[in-house]
Amino acid sequence: MADPTLDPTVRHLPHPSGDLLFRSAAGPEHAGIPIVAPWFAQTLGEQMHGWARALPWRRVSDTACALEHDGLALTFTADGLDFTLSCRNTTAKPRRVQLALHPYWAVDAPAARVVGLDGAAYLDKTDGRVKRFAGELRFGEETDFVFAGVRELSLVDATRAVHLTLTGADHAVVWNPGPVECRKAPALEDEDWERFACLEPALLGADRGGVVLAPGDEARIGMRVRVTTAW
Predict the structure, then answer these.
(1) Within 13 Å of residue 29, how many CA atoms lie on the same side as its CB?
(2) Secondary structure (3-state) at 2
(3) Could you tell me the end-to-end alpha-carbon distance of the chain, in angstroms, rounded to an integer?
(4) How many whole angstroms from its chain centre is CA 169?
(5) Which of 12, 76, 157, 158 is most buried (most C-beta within 10 Å)?
């Protein structure tokens, strides 16, 4: 019988170089790969990042689980280092949705850089302005950037590089609270910002206003992960 209380969040990704995922001792919400659906942030609803990770899922196979709620059918698949999230409209009316995967990559953030963003347009959520990025991204202050059209990016520190290939996503989100905001966050320890960075695939729609699913239509995003070491 399927477990009615299943939490679909991936908590660990073991690797010879160490677990690929971070988990804060201060709060379980900052850990692993949380699922974001059917909206991002509070764009289409009041609950932060939607209701998907707050409800119980059911297991449908060794690698997949499912959730049906409010006329939407979600499926999340974690197969090794390949991850997909889909959403199907089961109602008779069009539905506007957003999807994202929100991985907390374990990294030495002060020494890390993000490669693959050069030339991309992005929304800087710290000041609300749309800008164009140049070079490699470094951490050290609040970073909350939403990049349009990025399909390949890498998170690199002194010990390894985590390479991401995104499918079905129209944006890539990069988030790290930096030292000031980290100290303000009740569910993060003061120095946690040094231990993770979020690089995530997102389907947000034009002007980040969501995508419309006709009755029976499905949206799908994916993330393929590859890790390299020893350079």
Answers:
(1) 10
(2) coil
(3) 47
(4) 11
(5) 76
Locate all alpha helices (DSSP H) within 63-135, ordered by sequence: none
Please give the C-alpha separations between residue 74 and each of 35, 169, 188, 194, in angstroms, as whole numbers: 10, 16, 29, 33
> 52: helix, coil or strand?
helix
Q: Where are the beta strands (DSSP E) in the chain?
A: 35-36, 58-59, 64-69, 72-79, 82-89, 95-97, 99-101, 104-106, 113-115, 121-124, 129-132, 137-138, 143-148, 152-156, 160-167, 171-176, 196-203, 211-213, 218-229
Strand, coil or helix: 86: strand
- Put simply, whether the predicted model's pTM sits higher than 0.70 gets the answer yes
Whether 173 contacts 162, CB under 8 Å:
no
Residue 98's Cβ-count burial label (10 Å; 0-12, 13-18, 19+) is buried
The residues facing 155 across adjacent strands are: 114, 162
* DSSP letter, residue 169: -
Say whether 107 sits in a helix, a strand or coil. coil
Calculate the alpha carbon distances from 145 to 36, 117, 196 in Å: 17, 11, 15
- Cα–Cα dist 114/74, whole Å: 30
Asked if residues 147 and 117 have their Cβ atoms less than 8 Å apart, the reply is yes
Give pLDDT tens digits for 35-67: 999 999 999 999 999 999 999 999 999 999 999
